[in-house]
Amino acid sequence: MTDLISGRRESPAASAARAAAEAAARAAGVDIRPLDSVGELEAVRRLYERIWRTGENNPPVTADLLRAMWKAGSYVSGAFDRGEMVGACFGFFSAPARATLHSHIAGVLARTQGRNVGFALKLHQRAWAMPRGVGEVAWTYDPLIRRNAYFNITKLAADPAEYLPNFYGPLDDDINRSDDTDRVLVRWRLESPEVEAACAGRPRPAEVTAARMGVALGVSPSGGPQTGRADAPTVLVGVPADIETMRENDPARAAEWREALREVLGGLLAEGARVRGFDRAGWYIVDRQERP
């Protein structure tokens, strides 16, 4: 069968990925397609300015850069709701060769949250990548934002691989504010059984039993970080309910959370621990040793 996204002959796995992407777009009520015209790419710039509230003098990306990336064969797509662009995603190839795609920015308008537009965009990206020989997509996210951690780890079944302190340096927008830009790098192994299940609507399980797991980082009664013991085989690492509001109203406490998570989660990942899941209540579930 020919892939309608790439125009190439597709494998059974790629065909299944395309079908999952099309189903996700229908469920979200959007049309998702690759972008190449200057006008569409300029619309991506404006969309990102609205999402990150950066202003015209500090856009997350420019239309000319997106145009060059498209010409070089990179991935640029938009999600449209009755003709209006409500989401966009772009990425570029990284080593080794073209086997890995680095997904740099993906964002959707706040008013579409809850419709799974972001999920549909990622599944479109997967369906675009697989016929091109890409086996893995990698990207970074802010590990303090609960909804992003849940989306990446549980809903998409991506695997946290590395903690990156202050990775981007200062970013002048209303999302990051003055906080350090710590990020976690995740790897999305496109044909793994967990990812296939997640793309079919079966998220990665995230079972939290605090009585049988150590709490390495929790929330204190006052809302700040509270470190605990990290010597159990499986430990829980918590994050606050709304770090974005905290950055605006209590930047000092937000900075405390950043430092605590960097020490605890960053330390665990550096030691070789594996994040097995993320619970909706705000817990990273981390195995310090291989499970039987």
Automatic annotation (TrEMBL):
Keyword check for Acetylation: no
Cited Gene3D superfamilies: 3.40.630.30
Keyword set includes Transferase: yes
GO terms for MF: transferase activity
Key words of the record: Transferase
Name of the protein: Putative GNAT superfamily acetyltransferase
Source species of the chain: Nonomuraea endophytica
Lineage, top ranks: Bacteria, Bacillati, Actinomycetota, Actinomycetes, Streptosporangiales
